[in-house]
Amino acid sequence: MTISTNRVESFSDGVISIIITIMVFNIKFPHMTMPYTQGQVERALIVLIPSLISYLFSFLIIGIMWLNHHHLFHMAEKVDEKLLWLNLHFLFWLSLIPFPTSMLSGNPLLPESTAIYGGVLFMVSFSFSLMRTYASRKDLMHSDKNRLIQRQIDNVNRRAKLKNFAGMAAYFVAIPMAYVSVYISFACFIIPPILFFIPDGIDNEKLGEQVAEKLIKKNEDASNTISG
Questions:
Q1: How far apart are CA 47 and CA 50, in angstroms?
Q2: How many CB atoms neighbour CB 2 within 10 A?
Q3: pLDDT by residue (tens digit) across 16-44?
Q4: Which of 175, 156, 70, 164 has its CA nearest to residue 118?
Q5: DSSP type of residue 140
Q6: Cα-based distances in Å from 174 to 58, 117, 199
Q7: Which residue, of 35, 126, 164, 171, is most buried by count of CB atoms within 10 Å of its CB?
Q8: What is the pTM of this model?
Q9: pLDDT in tens, 172-186
Q10: Alpha carbon distance 64, 81 (integer Å)
Q11: Planar angle of CA 46, 47, 49, nearest 5 degrees
């Protein structure tokens, strides 16, 4: 069974948007009864700082995973049933992010909060790595007879895998380090976003246009064959 990659992307986009919506609901300004002073309002806002920082960082992680997911399925030519299950596996772990985010925002210095947060992020990266590896091994990714384009496609996949493995390693280290110092774990959490924003030296947009042109030509050839 094969289905369109666009359908998988649309479903995943909907799930990810719901995850972000649920996560922002955890940020709640405390109810204040009249009369209240300016100092009380300021203290209430200060109390919300850990929640805002946790939400901001989790939003960044989800955004990065959404972009990676988009790039993966942009490079995928077809989707089989196992890849669908692997995508659901990835979305399952992604959907758990609001829980440790809420736990971390309420208890930022609690080792268990940091360890669970790192564990969930590790599984998110691991599940995505499984999906990418399977798509590559089962020849579900685009291929091209043009050696230059094919070399670029291979380079994109290889560099993406390296960054994914480095991120997994950082999250894995953050789990036990939480019981040594939560600040070490926080430093580990920052590593994957930094790696993501390091340029690859590959024009992904141009490569995507080349792949799209290949698909259009392939569909036109198929239509001409049917018409003939």
A1: 7
A2: 12
A3: 999 999 888 888 776 666 777 777 777 77
A4: 175
A5: -
A6: 15, 9, 25
A7: 171
A8: 0.78
A9: 999 999 999 999 999
A10: 25
A11: 65
